[in-house]
Amino acid sequence: MPAEEPVAVVGVGQTKHVAARRDVSIAGLVREAARRALDDAGLGWVDVDAVVIGKAPDFFEGVMMPELYLADALGAVGKPMLRVHTAGSVGGSTALVAANLVAARVHRTVLTLAFEKQSESNAMWGLSLPVPFQQPLLAGAGGFFAPHVRAYMRRSGAPQTVGSLVAYKDRRNALKNPYAHLHEHGITLEKVQSSPMLWDPIRYSETCPSSDGACAMVLTDRAGAARSPHRPAWVHGGAMRSEPTLFAGKDFVSPQAGKDCAADVYRQAGITDPRREIDAVEMYVPFSWYEPMWLENLGFAAEGEGWKLTESGVTELDGDLPVNPSGGVLSTNPIGASGMIRFAEAALQVRGRAGAHQVEGARMALGHAYGGGSQFFSMWLVGAEPPAT
Amino acid sequence: MRDVAIVAFSQTDHVRGSEEISEVEMLMPVLHDVLGRTGLRTGDIGFTCSGSSDYLAGRAFSFTMALDGVGAWPPIAESHVETDGAWALYEAWVELLTGEADTALVYAWGKSSPGSVRDVLTRQLDPYYLAPLWPDSVALAALQAQALVDAGETDEPALAAIAARSRTDAADNPHAQLRGARAQGDYVVRPLRTGDCPPVGDGAAAVVLAAGDRARELCDRPAWIRGMDHRIEPHSLGVRDLTDSPSTRLAAEGAGAFERPVDTAELHAPFTSQEVVLRKALRLGGSVRINASGGALAANPVMAAGLIRIGEAAAAVHRGASDRALAHATSGPCLQQNLVAVLEGEPHAR
C-alpha cells in the first residue's frame, strides 16, 4: 500500500476447523487462534496495541455485537477494539482495516481476527428471516448463486465438468492442510460428479461446508518485522469495493466492483500482468464454479476463458497458477473467518510456511474475499519482499 | 500525520416511530443533505463507511439494503462497522490518514421502534452467563447509578438537574425527539426515573470528512480532528468499577483531550448518571458547555447517537460557537467501550 509505513504479516494462527467445536465457547475459540498467531510472531498479549475483529451477521451465533463480550478473551481490555462487518467479505475487510492502522502509523502492532461458530446457531435460518417488501434469500446462498453459474456456463460455453474439477482439486488440496475442515480421504472425481444435485447445476460436493473456526493475524510495522522470528509477508496492495445487490445493469457473472477492486490492488502493487506476476491465489470459492468465474473477474484470464485454465490444470497445486492450495472455502467455511483465511493463507505462501500445501517458490500471492450478492469485495496482495518505497 | 476535518454534518428529525418508511428512505434525505452541503456527489467520495446493527433491523445483512441509498454505482470503496457510527468515522479517519482517500462519507442509522430496545440490547451480553438472564439496559444503568449514589458521587436531585438542563437545551435543537422542559417522572428502575433515561426513537446521521486543502475547499471553517482514540473495558460488570470510566480517560489521553482545555463537549450519555461518570473521567470543569444539543437524553437513535455527538461538536466548530470541542461516543453496557475525538477550528476564520 502506498502509505506512510509498510505493513508486515508476522503471525498467522488458525483453529482446526470442524462442524462443531463443542469443547470451547466463542471466547475459547477466538483465543485459540489469537494465541497461535502471537506464538508465530513470537509476541505476547502485551505487545498488541489494538484489536480489529470481524465476523459475518451476528444472527449466526445469536449474539449482538459479540466483540463486547470477547474483549477479555482477546486481551483487548484497555486497548482499542474495532469491529468490522461487511458480509462474506468481512474477513478480508477486517484485515485491511487492521493494516490501515499500521500503514497510517496510528498503531505499530495490531492483532486482527475473524471467526464464526456456526454450530451455536443455524446459519441457514440466520440468513432467512422474513422481511416484508424485500426479496427473501432464496433457500440459502446456493439458491441465489446457481442462476449466475448457469449464466456463466451459457456465456462462456464451459463444459459441465469444470465445476467438479474444481471441487475435486480443492478437496485434495485440503488433505494437505491440517486446519481444513473437510478431509475426504477417499475423494474421487466420480464421487463429486455423482453427488446429489442441490441447486442445478451445483452438486452437493461442489458446495462449502458450515464450519466453526477462527483465524488471526499479527500485523506490524517495519521495526516489528525486523524483530520477527520468521520471515514476514509484506502487504503490497489492499482494497475494498462495493456495488448495490440488485439493479438492472448488474453483471452477476463478473461484477464491476470485483474488477475495480482487483485493478486497484494491482495498481498499488505495480502488477501489470497478474497471470505471470502472481504465484498463488487464495480466492473465495464457496461454490466450485466460482473459480473460473473469478479467474476472469480478477484478470487472470480473458472473459469466457477462465474455465480453460481450470480444465488444463493451471490452477492445480503443481500448476503454474495454483488456486486455493489450502483447499479453500469449499473445504472450510466459518463464514465470517473465510475471507481472513484467504488473506492469511496468501501470507503463509509467501512466508514459505504453508507446509504440505506450500506452492514452491511463491513470492507474490493474492487473497480475495467477496460477500453479499457478489456485492462486497476485499483483496490484498502480499509479497516475500517489502514494497519498493 | 495528515490533517483531516469534518466538513459537513446532517441528521434526521428523531422520532418515536417511523414504521411508514424503510431504512433506505430514512437515510436518503440525510445523505443528500450532507453531500449537498459540500457539493460532492457519491462518485467524488474516496471512502464510505457506515454503522448500524442487524439486531435492531431484525434481519441479517441489513446494511446491504441501506447501501442502495448511497447509490454505489459505479462501485465505491466502502466498509461497515456493526456498532455506533462513531466507530465508522474512526475507520474512515484512518483510511484518510493512509493517504488512499481524500474524502469520506460516514453514516449511521438505527430504528428502535420495531421492537423492544431494552430486550434487544440484552442480546449483546455474554451469551452463556448473562444474556440468558435478560438483564435489560435500564436495569444495568440503574445498577451503575445506584453505585454512584452509594459512592457519594451524585444523588437523585443532581441527576434530575442533568435531565432538566439537557431537555431545556434541546428546545433549541429542531432535530431532538424530546424538546423543552419536562417532568422527571416516575421511577423506571430505581434510582432512575423516566427523565434519567433516553427516549426510544428512530433516526440517522451522516458526516463528510476531508483531508488538508480539500477540507478548506469544502468548508469555510473545517472542524479539524486533532486526535481520536477509543478503548474497551472488561465485559463483566462484576470486575469493573462502575463509578469510573478508565477507558474514557485512556481514549481522551490518546486523543490529546487533556493537552488544552475544551470549550464544548458532546457526551454520549444515554442516562443522566453516565454524564456524572464521563465528566469526571474527562475532567470537564464548570466552564465547559456540555450537550448543548440536549444530548442522548433528548434523542437516542441507537447506533447513530454517538456519531451525532461528533457531528454536533463539529457543527459547533463550523458555526464558530466552539474553538476546541470534545466529542464522545459509547458502546456496550454501562459505558464499556468509549471513543473520544477532539475537534478544533482555525482561529483566523472566525
From TrEMBL, chain B:
GO molecular function annotation: acyltransferase activity, transferring groups other than amino-acyl groups
Taxonomic superkingdom: Bacteria
Matching PANTHER family: ACETYL-COA C-ACETYLTRANSFERASE, NON-SPECIFIC LIPID-TRANSFER PROTEIN-LIKE 2
Record protein name field: Lipid-transfer protein
